[in-house]
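Hi F.,

I've been meaning to write this up properly since the lab meeting, where we talked about keeping a consistent format for the predictions we share between groups. The idea is simple: the sequence comes first, exactly as it goes in, then the structure tokens exactly as they come out, then a line or two of notes. No screenshots and no reformatting. I'm using this chain as the first example so we have something concrete to point to.
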Amino acid sequence: MAQLTKIVCSIPKTIWFNFRYLPFCQAIKLPVWIAANVRIKRLHRDCIMINSRCKLGLIRIGFHEADAIDVHGQHTLLSIEKRGKLIFQDDAHIGHGAIINVKSEGKLSLGRNFAISGTTSIICSKSITFGDDVQLSWNSMIMDSDAHRIYSTDGKWINPPTEITVGNSVWIAANTSIMKGAVIKDNTVVASNSLVNKAFSEGNCILAGQPAKVVKQIGGFAI
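Output, unedited:
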């Protein structure tokens, strides 16, 4: 009953969101279903792209409530600055308490069957790309910049953002940090409390540690 009430209460915001930020031909199908308590910051017309056939509720934002989250103390935040882009390749769900922040000039692309269980933050300053069938657990951070600029003694910017690429069928477990320059290949599990801050050339493995390294080869996994 509580979930049904949450869906009913979300109807006005869902209608407003779709017709405010999507082309009419997509908005009429209400592909983005957004919870009433999702906070919207700095969104602009054409900041969201959906590259698949739209249908009702294709993308759900702010509904999934993970067991490890205090849903009463957390809010989902969606922020896309001017010229930033959030691209959905197909269906996705962004859980209660997640933060999506796309900076000016940033491009965040989410593949088919993308999922965040909640309280995970994605902060995109340049480019972050997720493949298909990627799931992120709670309390993780994905960030392609250092947030602040560092300059050399002769005034040159020495820590610019570096793109992040995550392949297909990747599970990123809880309390994990995926930092700028990270490349995670297909069929990879990133263990809890890991730090991925470099490019990996192999998939079908488990990454673990701070910094992460390949600890085991695998044939696949199920979530």
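Notes:
The chain has a mean pLDDT of 94.
The radius of gyration is 18 Å.

If this format works for you, I'll send the rest the same way.

G.
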